[in-house]
Amino acid sequence: MDPRQxxxxxxxxxxxSKERALDKARSLPVDAIIFDLEDAVAADEKDNARETLKxxxxxxxxxxxxxxxxxxGLDTPWGHADAEAVRDMDADVVLLPKVGGAADVxxxxxxxxxxxxxxxxETPRGMLNAAQIxxxxxxxxxxxxxNDLAKELQTRFRxxxxxxMSSLGLCLLAAKAEGLIAIDGVYxxxxxxxxxxxxxxxxxxxxxxxxxxxxPAQVEIANTAFAxxxxxxxxxxxxxxxxxxxxxxxxxxxVVDGKIVENLHVATAREVLAKAExxxxxxxx
Length: 285
Known about the structure:
Residues 9-216 form the HpcH/HpaI aldolase/citrate lyase domain. This protein is of the alpha/beta class.
């Protein structure tokens, strides 16, 4: 499946050390799970978390959800052991924090082999090197670490995320150039549904594939925001039909709702329908 068609609307962080949370995640309607061995796990629990997560993934039950394991950085006391453990876990992706350049991805790949790698994009150096990071042959996704990035940039909070726009844009450009998945950063106020919906809408408008989440209460909002709407699905069908009709007749130009429909619009329309079908397939499974 084209990565852009596989849904990544909701990507939920789950602590790798919490058996109850690991079990609950099996029933949540999320598209992907980040099993976290980094920020969500205290230093004295790192070793236990590694074993707890390995057992949970071996038990299975996560269905079609993409299983992503975020390890500690390789410059920490736990990073190498995490990487070696993930190599032998039932994981789909390993997520490396604070990636500053392609050499960081090389270092991880030397341990994890052919396992696909995602990069946490959360430092100024990472932003400046986004293109080279995205071009790594094992790199398949970016996750925006907006909290760490805000700290590093010394920004003030703004609901419109204006201080983040350059960084978000650089990462999106690099991801789209290489055909990567691009996941937006978290929204910290997990009880603020209206604020989350607004930020999801902004991320979707920018071109992100989905949003990282910190609480199950955020899942439905993200799933709705990053799925094709009924209006978008209807428009896609009408564009495809209008273009096909004109092609068959060999006359005129396809027009829908007063706007010309060209090949590029039809390609986008087909992507919309493919994503809608993929979401239905996930829900049915």
